[in-house]
Structure formats: structure tokens, C-alpha cells
Specification:
- With 263 residues, the protein is mainly β.
- It has one domain.
- Helices cover 11% and strands 34% of the residues.
- Strands 1, 2, 3, 4, 5, 6, 7, 8, 9, 10 and 11 form an 11-stranded mixed sheet that branches.
């Protein structure tokens, strides 16, 4: 009886682990394909049998020279990529969504499995955009200064851990395509809104254990989404009182008796 119980517990644990291992769990291996919206590129190299398709393959970074003052004519006409702390930084997924006070864009090194899903265990560069909402031809420019985003990277000296790098940075970002639906107040809290394309150049100023880093190039098919009610959503005003009904009510009221005030 005791042996049967142990066997059953082992089988049950295995079934539970299989069930809860679905979704956006971190992949077992890091490197595989590359496409901004989260899907694998048809030209991406095939992984080993059984490899997780959500893991990226580090590709060659585009030709770009780090500068404290990135220029539009220096943005590479090539797929997005970069170098983070002297290591290649492949961009597999680009996400655009409203933040608390404005829009934000994030560049991840792992794939997104569904438009409103989470990417667990990725390294990513997040930029908080200031000014107007994104649109076709809209350009965002930030001079070298502290703040405006952060870079989640492997911890120097220990690649098994991650750290958030906050440092002076500058960037240029332009949206060349913006195929996005407005927020639907009657829809679910998490909504897939559409896709966007553009070009970007981001530079981070190194210090201490972190070296000068950058990300630059063009992206296509970035996922645009609403992860909850956006900051710019405005509640509908309450309906105005029915003036006609109020007039009828006043007209039908009994006149007060002499010497009495209105009731």
C-alpha cells in the first residue's frame, strides 16, 4: 500500500507540473528566433529538437557607433539590435502600451506568446515616452540625461541574476506605421490594439561595472496593447436631466392654496 501511494503521488505531481508549466513560463534555454511582434522569423535558424521557440538566437548587431548625441542620419537601416554591457542584445519582441502618465515602449530578448501575455525571465530595455501619443511620423527625442527608462540586464559577474540599470541615456524614436484601434471602454481590461513600426537609437552611458551600451535599428509589427484602462481614457459624462419631463411635472403640480407657499 505504501508503494502504491508513493507511485500515485509521483504521477499526480507530474501531471500538476505539466499543467502549470504552460503559458508564459521562462524558457529553459535562452537563444532562438527574432521578430518584433513576438513571432518567430521565417528565416530564423532552427533550434535543437525540443528547444523552446520563445527563446532568442543572438544575431549580429547592426553597424552603429555609440555617441552621447545620437543623430537621425546615423540610425541603421537594418533590423533592430544592440550591445549591452559589451554583450550582444538581440531584440525579439517590441511592446508599445500606455503607462501611468504616458506611452512606453519595451524591447525584449524573448518572444511574446500572445498579445496581452507577459514575458517572464526576459532582459529588456524600457523607454517612457514624453509628449503626445504615438502616431505615424511622430518623433520622440531625449537628450542625454538620467531617467526616462531603465535596462534590465544580467548582473555583472553573475549571468544567472538580473539587475535594473538606471543611467544617463539619450534616444531617438520615430513611428513610421501606427495601425492601432482606440481603447474600447466596453471591452476587457486587457486589449490587443494593433501593430506599429518605426526606427530607434538608444544610448546608455556606462560607469563602474557597466560599459557604454546601445540599441538601434528598425522594427516592424510591434505589438500595441492596453493592459488595463489607459491614463487618457475619459469617463462619459452623466446624462443631462430631461428638461421636457421637468416642465411637464411643474405644469401638472397643483397650485398652492391662498396664503400657502409652494409644496
Amino acid at each position: 500500500m505504501r508503494l502504491r501511494g508513493l507511485v500515485w503521488c509521483g504521477v499526480s505531481w507530474g501531471l500538476c507540473a505539466g499543467a502549470f508549466g504552460c503559458g508564459d513560463d521562462p524558457p529553459k534555454e535562452r537563444p532562438t528566433p527574432v521578430k518584433a511582434g513576438g513571432g518567430a522569423s521565417k528565416d530564423a535558424p532552427k533550434g535543437a529538437p525540443g528547444a523552446d521557440p520563445a527563446a532568442p538566437v543572438a544575431g549580429a548587431a547592426p553597424d552603429f557607433t555609440w555617441s552621447e548625441t545620437p543623430a537621425w542620419d546615423k540610425v541603421p537601416d537594418a533590423p533592430l539590435g544592440g550591445v549591452a554591457n559589451e554583450k550582444p542584445f538581440p531584440v525579439v519582441t517590441v511592446l508599445v502600451e500606455p503607462g501611468l502618465k504616458g506611452w512606453k515602449i519595451a524591447f525584449h530578448d524573448r518572444a511574446l506568446k500572445r498579445p496581452t501575455g507577459l514575458i517572464v525571465g526576459s532582459h529588456h530595455l524600457d523607454l517612457h515616452l514624453e509628449g503626445d501619443s504615438p502616431a505615424v511620423g511622430k518623433k520622440f527625442e531625449k537628450p542625454m540625461a538620467f531617467g526616462g527608462g531603465y535596462w534590465q540586464l544580467p548582473k555583472p559577474g553573475d549571468d544567472t541574476k538580473a539587475t535594473s540599470w538606471n543611467a544617463p541615456n539619450a534616444y531617438l524614436l520615430e513611428f513610421t506605421k501606427w495601425d492601432v484601434k482606440p481603447w474600447d471602454p466596453e471591452g476587457p481590461a486587457f486589449q490587443s490594439a494593433g501593430t506599429a513600426s518605426g526606427r530607434v537609437a538608444v544610448v546608455y552611458k556606462g560607469s563602474g561595472e557597466f560599459k557604454d551600451s546601445w540599441l538601434a535599428g528598425h522594427f516592424e509589427g510591434a505589438t500595441v496593447r492596453y493592459m488595463g484602462r489607459p491614463y487618457f481614457a475619459v469617463d462619459a459624462p452623466p446624462p443631462a436631466p430631461d428638461a421636457g419631463a421637468a416642465a411637464k411635472s411643474d405644469a401638472g403640480a397643483a397650485a398652492p392654496a391662498p396664503g400657502e407657499g409652494p409644496k
